[in-house]
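User: I'm new to structure prediction. If I give you an amino acid sequence, what do you actually give back? Let's try with this one:
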Amino acid sequence: MPDTTPQPAHGLAALNSWGISLDTAGLVALADLSSILRRCALTGTSSILDAFVIAPGLHRQYKAGDFGINQGEIPEAVSLDSGHVFHIHNPATVMFFQDMSETGQLTEFIVEPLNPPKPGWQEKLVKIFDFREESMMSLIFYALAVVLSWATILATAIFEDWFAFWGVLALIFARALNVYTMRRRAHSPGADGWFGNKYERGKRDIFVLLSRDRWVRLKGNVEDMKRVTAGTWLDKPQPHENWLVSLATLIVFGDAVVINNAQNVGKVLLISLLLITAILLALVNDRTSCLKMHGRVVRRVSAVGYEFRLDMVKALKRDVGQHDWAQNLRMLSDGDLARIL
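Assistant: Good question. You get back a string of structure tokens that encode the predicted 3D arrangement of the chain. For your 341 residues, that looks like this:
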């Protein structure tokens, strides 16, 4: 007689017979991580390939234009040429300055136009994923995150775990809805809106006073500088976009319930996808050393540390030839002013 004894499962399939409960696996997607929205702010938009980067916090992407990404800080800035004081309201730019500067250091940045892609395949590729100004390591980590999503879809299909299969596709669909709204808001006429009066081409040199004694110097063309400091980098969402964002959020929360019906192997695959992608996306953000926005790029040039703030003011005064900017920012007391004159 043929042997009808059930054969033990091997590999990932053995997870289904372990008796381990993973009913809360779908809740991992609801973790309040900021990697996705920070990536969106650093690139100034959202690429089509972003839809296949599935990480915890994907339902929070629409908050990339909020002041939460820069802890609500609206720093004062001053023109080193004229002494005019103003505020930088762009949360993405402030976030970038915060990430790239250190306490007790004067960090210098430069802003300039982003090189246009070459006609042909580069021009077409940029519409799918903007690879310009990206380091090789960040490109590799990003590509791994995209491949991992497709590998998870394939694996769930091979194991015939259809709840997990459709659960991953639902997360991709929710991510795609957010990608659409972010691309529209970043590239609409409203996003390219208010930047003040146009000026003749000329250089501008400004000093930004951040919290925790972090100092930033930004150089560049006047119009280029206004594109990354004035106004905002995202247009306000339209009513139908608010509906799409709400739908995407409901899909993510509903997906957490649906995944409970998946096999253990599918749940493990989903958890692995979310956790590994979160690590990869954090590495991508860490390897991104520039800010892209409105066709401009902001790069860090140098950083010099000072033991005392007055030493930094003295050094910058020698460079620009005047100290009015420090007085206007209330960085000098009467005693300090007497020592630097």
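You can read the tokens as a compact description of the fold. Here is one thing that stands out. The two ends are 104 Å apart (CA to CA).
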